[in-house]
Design brief:
This protein is an alpha+beta fold. It is about 40% helix and about 20% strand. A four-stranded mixed β-sheet has the order 1-2-4-3, with helices on both faces. Strand 3 and strand 4 form a beta hairpin.
């Protein structure tokens, strides 16, 4: 399951609500446009996920289907789970084994 929480317990549901609440306050750190998933974009996504764990990404590509396919590719290539997808914005989560408390959006207060 690419989307976080497709089969989930009550605790997991609350965790997702909390992740979405944190994600709501974030600004997109990566914008993916016409060139799609270039090596530079993948490297930037990897760096952002490693540093921040929870990130917001803007998908500036055509149709809803194109955005959904791009979101699936991002998830597959980055190893991140899609917490939320609204319009052209997705929120991704990839927990770090050793998060940096100064950078992680899961630890630092907003």
């Amino acid at each position: 399951a690419l989307y976080l929480g497709t089969t989930m317990s009550k605790k997991a549901h609350q965790d997702i609500k909390q992740l979405r609440a944190i994600g709501h306050k974030l600004k997109p750190v990566v914008t993916i446009a016409g060139k799609g998933l270039t090596e530079g974009v993948i490297n930037e996504l990897d760096r952002a996920l490693t540093d921040h764990e929870l990130i917001k990404v803007k998908l500036a590509v055509g149709s809803r289907e194109a955005r959904a396919e791009l979101a699936r590719q991002i998830s597959a290539q980055s190893g991140a789970e899609i917490v939320q997808s609204i319009g052209n914005i997705i929120v991704l989560l990839r927990r770090s084994p050793t998060p940096d408390p100064r950078l992680s959006n899961l630890i630092k207060p907003l």
